[in-house]
What does this fold into?
Amino acid sequence: MKITKNLTHVVSSVDFQAALNEKELANVLGEKGMQGFPAELDIAERTEEHVQIVALEDLLGFAKASGVNAVTYDVTYFPHADDAEIDYQVSQLARDLEISSEVIRSLCAEEIDEYLALDKERDAERPVHSIVEAYIGGTAFAWYGINEYPRLKRVILRKLIAGGAEAEHAFVMRASKLQMDYIDY
It folds into this structure.
């Protein structure tokens, strides 16, 4: 439940269930007498605050009781990370943080190597996310399953938050440049 009043937020925690593959989802849906249809569901949109996230059994039971006989689903698999994926993620993060990707690579070289090693141990045949969605009375209800997997951005951000002379220097230089840009001569 999320309540917003006068800039005060009260949020209850959400416990995600494990992601299921297509066959597992078909079995669960079949047990409930429902049909499932694959769709490209956007994780970010399906986890927004206006979407009601519930446990899979509860979602299917509620949908069935509401006269819904079919739902959409999406299952996401991630291949193992390679150098191109590392370059992409580091570049994205550098753009978001407005710092150099070289600074990130320099400060986080060990973390990147550790991430690659952990990712190689991960079973790429196991889904990382699965979503089931039903629209009932104009409201989106969704189940979102997730299986743990290493996340490079999380590891890098943790390292950058801890600091470092290069990150601090890049920030100071950027802030100094911004100050100079705004000085009215």
In short: The longest helix spans residues 165-182.
